[in-house]
Design brief:
Length: about 220
């Protein structure tokens, strides 16, 4: 049987960074474990932005600015990205990386907790695409907050929904804190699948991605 990690690595080998700074960010993230999107997941997200021509994007979880930079690069500067981060060190580094590529007009970092109501986030709504990539234990809460900020044809993308494959065998996770977190992610996946107003597709890309779109109801269905 083919190992999923090996297959993911094979797919990732066909992706590449747009510039040297991004390559350095990827290396640093790997060396000291900064949570950034896996290459194949990032490539899919970029393609999704191309397909939908997203003009307003909200990202929850900036880290060092890797995802927001790659999203901005694929749009050619025509998109406004609002990205939320609460870690001061991450904000400082992300700001430096964004300025190094002269993307500060396209990317706005909001200093705050993504689970709270942030005026800067609401001011730029509605969003064509929302990326949830923050605290996994808060995914369900974040989705509920995001749903009201989404445009009618918008998309919510959630990263890391397979959590290194641990969601497939939760009982095998013996560390108590990790086990609770994996259960939270699993509960979130079930929550997504049961949303009456959203259709969600789960993809085996990167560490697992969920793509959620609003359901469209016909006039006949609305009368039921």
């Amino acid at each position: 049987m083919i190992d999923f990690k090996e297959l993911s690595a094979y797919a990732a080998a066909f992706t590449c960074s747009e510039n040297e700074l991004l390559h350095k960010m990827e290396k640093k993230a790997a060396d000291i474990y900064i949570p950034i999107m896996q290459p194949s997941a990032m490539a899919f997200l970029q393609q999704l932005i191309r397909w939908t021509n997203a003009q307003r994007i909200l990202e929850l979880g900036t880290a060092i600015g890797y995802s927001s930079i790659r999203m901005a690069l694929v749009t050619g500067g025509g998109t406004k990205i609002i990205t939320v981060e609460r870690d001061p060190a991450m904000i400082e580094e992300a700001t430096q990386n964004i300025k190094a590529l002269n993307l500060q007009d396209s990317i706005q970092i909001v200093d705050g907790d993504a689970t709270e109501d942030l005026p800067e986030v609401h001011a730029s709504a509605p969003y064509d695409l929302i990326l949830i990539d923050a605290a996994k234990a808060q995914y369900e809460h974040l989705f509920q907050k995001c749903a009201g900020l989404l445009s009618d044809k918008g998309i919510i993308v959630t990263d890391n929904v397979f959590f290194h494959g641990l969601v497939c065998d939760i009982d095998a996770v013996k560390k108590r804190q990790l086990n609770r977190l994996v259960k939270k992610v699993d509960e979130y996946n079930h929550f997504l699948s049961e949303q009456p107003d959203f259709d969600t597709l789960f993809l085996t890309i990167g560490d697992g991605m969920a793509v959620s779109t609003k359901k469209t109801f016909t006039a006949h269905e609305g009368e039921r």
